[in-house]
Amino acid sequence: MSRQEFIITNIKPSTAIRHDYNSFSKLCHETQAPVVVTKNGEADLVVMSHEAFQKMMARQRLGRMLSEVDRQIAAGTPMRDFEETFTAIKKRIDSE
């Protein structure tokens, strides 16, 4: 796979949430993967832990940023010097 994609292996009926929320929540947190919730035998929802969701969103943001840089490079846009950029990032990290 060229992109970071989830392979859905966890499929649970909606009753799993209603009857045993704690176990369902534990599954989401331990696997850090989405869980397909079915209703009447059909896929209805996809549920994941908040942490897994945050990581997924961060990967998407990074992907968009890298795509933009790729477009800028292809267009010949002048880039910042590596050493200047690294120094600026280090200064930002040290000031936090």
From TrEMBL:
Belongs to the phD/YefM antitoxin family. This is Antitoxin. InterPro entries: Antitoxin_Phd/YefM, YefM-like_sf. Pfam families: PhdYeFM_antitox (PF02604). Antitoxin component of a type II toxin-antitoxin (TA) system. The lineage of its organism: Bacteria, Bacillati, Bacillota, Clostridia, Eubacteriales. It comes from Desulfoscipio gibsoniae DSM 7213.
